[in-house]
Write a structure and sequence with these properties.
Layout (H helix, E strand, L loop, with lengths): L11 H14 L10 E7 L2 E6 L2 E5 L31
Antiparallel strand pairs: 1-2, 2-3
């Protein structure tokens, strides 16, 4: 993300503008707002059930917290999940 002139840290508006342009540049099919009800293994993929339909995914990203204040939600089944979980 390009530096925002005159700011030590980017403002929320700068981040939103950057992400919007990023989605358009790479033709990403971002859906929002969407509430996820369930994620489960479906062969080599993950089945994602939402209030906006269902789809299969290779990865699921739950964007929560901030860099300096991570929040990892206590999701039922998280301890049994065999995939990679990390906070960056």
């Amino acid at each position: 993300m390009p530096r925002q002139e005159g700011e030590e840290f980017p403002t929320a508006g700068h981040v939103v503008d950057y992400l919007r342009a990023y989605e358009q540049r790479y033709d990403l099919r971002v859906r929002r707002p969407v509430r996820v009800h369930e994620v489960r293994r479906a062969g080599e993929r993950l089945a994602v059930e939402t209030d906006d339909g269902s789809w299969l995914a290779r990865y699921v990203i739950s964007a929560t917290g901030t860099w300096e204040c991570p929040y990892v939600p206590d999701i039922p089944g998280r301890a049994e999940f065999g995939g990679r979980q990390l906070h960056r």
